[in-house]
Specification:
The protein is an alpha/beta fold. 34% of the residues lie in helices and 12% in strands. Strands 1-2-3-5 form a 4-stranded parallel beta sheet, covered by helices on one side. It has a 4-stranded parallel beta sheet with strand order 6-7-8-10, sandwiched between helices. A two-stranded antiparallel sheet has the order 4-9. Helix 2 crosses helix 4. The two termini are 18 Å apart.
Amino acid sequence: DLRILSAVTPGLTQCDVLVVDSKFHRDRWKSGVEPVVEEFVALRQKAPRLVYFDTTDSTGVLQTELLPVVDAYCKNQILRDRREYLRPHYGQRIYADYYHRHDGVTDDNPLYSNAAESEADLAKLRVGWNSGLANYSAAGPLVSSAYRWLPLRPLLRFAAKFNPPDVDRPVALQRRFGLGHGRASVSHQRRRIIELLGSPAVSAKLNRSQYFAELQRTWAVLSPFGLGEITLRDFEVFLTGSLLVKPSMAHLETWPALFDDETMVSFGWDLSDLREVFDRVERDRKGHLAIAVEGQRRYRNATVGAGAADAFCQHVKRIWLQS
């Protein structure tokens, strides 16, 4: 039995578990940390269990001020080595910190993530669910916009059309991505990829229909990190049946578990094996086809599979029971 509210109202804490989404306070942190924390303390005194859902893009930033207050802190994707949260990361992301330390990349206005103060508090971290649980079909954004004005449940359905990976795909590799991230430490990976693979890595922007048509003709798609490790492109690739190629995701945990050696091809963050990986992927399609098939199979099962709803409910129950 769920109630979804957009304001702190009387009776809010009359529940078994109170969940607060990070977007509710997103703009209020700028006005001061104390009032937000005080509100959480007040909620914690009344609610049987208080769970915070951090739906920000990367594994990086935690609202560490809330860790001592809440019973559980859920994040779309979290660092596998929880102790990494005990130190600040340059650029507020572990991969930005990596390029700062290894390649000397600096930002005009450096930002650091807030380090957690207590290792005991890290035990409160839970894996929530990632942004893959949405409609990423060609018409997905249009359907989502329609729901804002016409909130009918059928509009919340997942994409049901999947293109089989084993069809003819004349385009060997798609490397279409932008460089619009303002911070050098965040955009560095993309810029280095362009330097290594050449300027065709960036080409003119397509409309969504053209973009999906291109994906359906493409064998392998490069999906570098952006503001977060997981990008919308990843799920579009699973839908259209291409082979997903990404920087290593071994440092994180997420749910659904869609990013490992069985579902994607990865390369190192230092990019030293980038050219070798793409040569191998392009040369041996037959040997990599099973990876594209498995990536699509897992994504289909997590969204429209017969057991998808039950798997989601069981995952949520685990979060509550661990809180």
